[in-house]
Design brief:
By secondary structure, the protein is α+β, with helices and mostly antiparallel strands. 24% of the residues lie in helices and 28% in strands. It starts with a strand and ends with a strand. The structure holds flavin-adenine dinucleotide. Flavin-adenine dinucleotide (FAD) binds next to β3, β8, β12 and β13.
Length: 346
Amino acid sequence: MKVIPQASLRTYHTFGFEITASYLVIIESLEDVRSMFMDPMNSDLLSLKDGWMVIGEGSNLMFTRHFEGTVILMRIQGIEVVKEDERYVYLEVGAGEHWHNLVRHSLSKGWGGLENLSLIPGSVGAAPVQNIGAYGVEVEAYIVAVDVYDLMTRSLKTIGHKECMFGYRDSLFKRAGRDRFIITRVSFRLEKVRTPVLDYAPLRELFVSTGIGHPSPMAVSDAVIGIRQSKLPDPAVVGNAGSFFKNPVISKIELEGLQALYPNIPYYPVEEGMKIPAGWLIEQCGWKGFRAGAVGCYHKQALVLVHFGGGQPADLIDLARRIRTSVQVRFSVHLEAEVNIVGDRL
Ligand SMILES: Cc1cc2nc3c(=O)[nH]c(=O)nc-3n(C[C@H](O)[C@H](O)[C@H](O)COP(=O)(O)OP(=O)(O)OC[C@H]3O[C@@H](n4cnc5c(N)ncnc54)[C@H](O)[C@@H]3O)c2cc1C
């Protein structure tokens, strides 16, 4: 276990703001986790004002100020096949593995399931936290269980799929389990015989136009990578954390009210109501491509807020608040942050 006092977090989160934490602790094994929370020598690390938090690759985080606490960097590695049969392969994967590496590794072995989730930044351990999803697939469909260190009982525990309470960009780990569970390993069930999921129209059209009716998982992955690279900013080039806001879900009556004013408003029926693309709402308010000094709204996708470098977190928070207010005033729709805000409230 490595402890770094007064650490810069600039390279540990994809917005790239110059932010510091009182301590940064690098965890590479279960032994490190136990030592962090059980060894009295480390009690100082747990008793600071902001407490502690775990991060993977910081691609879904927005620090608003110095973190007066301990940031635990999850770096437990390992991809292990624990069982297989004719149809499925069961994997246990260390929480610190890079997500996209797991996707490409599994595809190279001929195991399908994660291809639509290619190139999502971040770590394996964070994938269940917000139930990552893209191009018609959510990761929960392939998660069997999540291994955690439980701070309440100070012991290791396995949480089954049902108990994880997965929802749209949501899970137990974002709610009641937030300051209780440290995810150390995730178990997946992948498919040896795979039917591609081509619900997302641009993906389907890409294969229809090339006459490929049943693309391989690897071909789907390549297509997703191509689409993502053409639409989303690379955090290595311009600071961002992907979608800043969640797509709001409104009632059918609220949608009808909006349709009377905006007949072209896009929507998708979901279990809880009608989902509206937040990017469309933000774009309608004129923010797409907007820049205020070091921060702005990405010119190809209004839902992505960007930090061009040299700015302060307050600049971005101010922009996010202005965007949220303008959507509220124009559409009476409340935008909720998808990004985890750490520090002051949005
Ligand atoms: C360009 C870009 C595109 C993106 N596209 C998508 C997309 O298509 N779909 C999507 O769903 N997301 C997307 N994201 C968001 C992000 O990639 C995912 O949320 C990813 O899972 C975050 O992983 P991370 O390791 O960086 O998590 P972090 O940002 O480090 O952490 C995120 C949250 O998870 C918690 N956490 C992390 N690791 C652990 C752990 N081991 N135990 C307990 N809690 C933990 C943290 O405390 C924090 O609350 C995108 C981000 C970017 C920058």
